[in-house]
Design brief:
18% of the residues lie in helices and 44% in strands. It is an alpha+beta fold and 168 residues long. The protein starts with a helix and ends in a 6-residue tail after the last strand.
Length: 168
């Protein structure tokens, strides 16, 4: 049996995933992109896996800077997801970053104020597979939200709030 690209995409639409904005800053410049392909690899040492489309201009910046911040979005940050999902040729980095408030943790990659969590990371390894760069990112700092908003997931090609508000 051959699995078509469309069959795969339709099945993956049924896999709910957290919505994240992956940001970077450094000598190559500042950039950011929306991504749902993020997961934990191990807690010793704390490592995330982040998949970025190779054609993404922000992906090029992330790899060149060697740092990234995974900003896990709250349910009220859907508009930011849409802005960062747009190609940089349509919406420049300055316009994207103007839509939110940002701080920096350890690496200098932008951490979104109000995100459910921000994982500040240095890139440990990159594997090129198909259309994507699979990035293994060592977590060097974490910031948790003091907000009571639930998280934001993408499921069945749409956004959904998930979880109960957290206690600070």
């Amino acid at each position: 049996m051959t699995v078509t690209r469309q069959d795969f995409r339709d099945a993956m639409a049924r896999l709910g995933a957290a919505v994240n904005i992956i940001t970077t800053d450094g000598s190559a410049g500042r950039g950011g992109v929306t991504a749902s392909a993020v997961c934990s690899v191990t807690d010793d040492p704390p490592t995330l896996l982040v998949c970025i489309n190779r054609e993404s201009s922000s992906g090029v910046l992330i790899k060149a800077n060697g740092v990234l911040c995974v900003n896990v979005l709250a349910s009220g940050q859907r508009d930011l997801s849409d802005i960062f999902a747009r190609p940089s040729k349509e919406v420049g980095a300055e316009q994207k970053f103007a839509a939110g408030r940002w701080a920096v943790l350890e690496t200098g990659a932008p951490a979104l104020d109000g995100a459910v969590a921000a994982f500040d990371c240095r890139i440990a390894d990159i594997v090129e597979k198909g259309t994507h760069s699979v990035i293994f990112a060592s977590v060097v700092a974490i910031r948790l939200s003091v907000s009571a908003q639930p998280g934001l997931i993408y499921y069945s090609r749409g956004y959904h709030g998930v979880g109960q508000p957290t206690e600070s």
